[in-house]
Model the fold of this input.
Amino acid sequence: MILKEILSHVDILDYKGNLNCNISGIDIDSRKVSESHLFVAVKGTQTDGHAFIDKAVSQGASAVVCEEIPANVPENVTFVRVANTEQVVGILATTFYGDPTGRFSNPSTEKAETHTTLSKQSDAVSPSDGQQPTDACAKKSPLKLVGVTGTNGKTTIATVLYQLFRGLGYKVGLVSTVCNYIDDQAVEATHTTPDPISLNRLLADMVEAGCEYAFMECSSHSIHQHRIGGLKFTGGIFTNLTRDHLDYHKTFENYRDAKKMFFDNLDKKAFAITNLDDRNGAVMVQNCKAQVRTYSTRSMADYKGRIVEESIEGMLLDINGSEVSVPFVGRFNVSNLLGVYGAALMLGEESSEVLRVLSTLRPVNGRFEAIRSPKGCSAVIDYAHTPDALENVLSSIQEILNGKGQIITVCGAGGNRDKGKRPLMAQEAAKRSDRVIITSDNPRFERPEDIIADMLAGLDEAGRAKTLAITDRREAIRTAAALAQAGDVILIAGKGHEPYQEIEGVKHHFDDHEEVRAAFGIA
Done:
């Protein structure tokens, strides 16, 4: 693809070199640069890409987009200066990968043919690298992309929408914390939202595979860092907002505003669905130009739901006057399913058909997954890693048990993350559980004992009296299983779908599902 075409939707302040050079790949990581690639020097939170321009050039970069053009520009390398590389990299990636979500007008046939010819002339990248520009997005309809943002519930809503629309007969893509999917093809996920180049390449692959819809988790980091900046969203869903990621955002207001930015950027043809049960639900859509719809379990809303019956295996719900049985548990999941239901209706699906397919779906991996012990107790595995998420899951278990069994909670907190939530998580666990075991989560580069001490510091005398501290997570789970009697529920919180523990930069295999089954003595 010609560099000038890649730059067609960004404001150029200055350049040196040839804008008509051929580009066969685009990178923000200098280690991935090959011959004829474009390197975008992004100032990140950990490193500044400008420090790696020389390396990118030495590895064959034909062009560099940067915020400062070096005094000595190498021959045969084009340098382009923009005001903010972080803000434009998503737009550059979207253009390079053929505008998979249709933010810009699709390239003409003539331009698509030019792209193809240029790709054939390039000898730099093999098709398996996924870096060659493609005209697939020009020939096929762009994806209808729906983003889900909030503190909790993103994975469940995005994944259930993916499952729902596949059940309705569509080819669908998913970008999620647990795993990415191109229809039925799994693609490993390393971040909640990938970097803008990987993300656009993934979306372009979805278009190539014939996907009509894509559902994506949008983290606050990805919104703030403009990773989704080049994309057009057909709709957005807000789940809720509680304390999280303050190690990055510093204040709750900054965190809230990062989420709100997503809805501020939706256009008038899009839809925005917001949770009225959250005090920030109305705030999210204050400046939103999109068509706004609401959902609630407590007040009047466009999409209203309530629990008719509930057990550890599932719920009978009333949604907008129709009853549906689902294998999901908890009021928080009623909210999640209302977000799914509302999005499906805004995308043109019939209510009765949506409810029919919803009744056939299964919970997302690591989100309120119940495992029953032969001795009559149960364990619930959940990703809950914030105070609010713990409160939601434990409140749901309390409602199901209704005083007829005890709750034993096993939880920890991640290392090198927001320390302020640690004592709050311990408080929630102690407040809503009969016994608590504080243990290791993903300590990363911190000592597990220090993280546990931070959590214990939040407990009063009564809380400490019901709490054990067991650093080894396997031993903590086994202890909880030994303490549980028939009718009790053990909550294993914090890791959910993760099959590892991250210790000193190394991910060691550890799966809460496997550990619970071993502790229960079942295969």
The chain has a mean pLDDT of 90. The chain has 19 helices and 24 strands. Residues 46 and 248 are 12 Å apart (CA to CA).
